[in-house]
Design brief:
Length: 192
Amino acid sequence: MGKKKTPAINSSSTADIAFLLLCYFLMTTTMGSQTGLQRRLPPMPDKDQKVEDIKINRRNIIIVRINSADRLLAGSEPIDISMLKDKIKEFLTNPADDPNLPEKEVKEIEGYGAYAVSKGVISLQNDRGTSYRAYIDVQNELVKAINELRDEFSSRAYGKKFVNLTEEQQKIVKEAIPQNISEAEPKDTGKK
């Protein structure tokens, strides 16, 4: 008696089908992309360039600190995150020309004319123990304050929000309301 052949399924094309399915899912699936903080970094200095200290008037700087317990200080006073945006807007606009708030410099903006631009700089400092969530929340509030100031300027000058302006108009608004945020190296404030 001869050996019986066991029936088998032809699986020669299974690998091809699996490969095609893999290709299909790779091409049609969208991967969640993480977005970072949008910052324009200064250009790298030349190796031969001398280091110059830029003197900034003390009144033109507001220091925003986040400690390791995620507590927030703006200037020298503790502040809640919900009040930070309004504090920054007041600091940058200096509506009452307070001598303790930033100076304004009248600049000739091409395409717009003379405008009093704030010399205000926001210096963000955080502790190495600061949570990432608190850091991002503070960053968002700072950018939200500047965006609101840009929207207000855009509405007065062009009758539209900043995002609806042409590229040239946006450039004018950015010159009138600059985003001057300086970030210091994180520190270990808890250690001595």
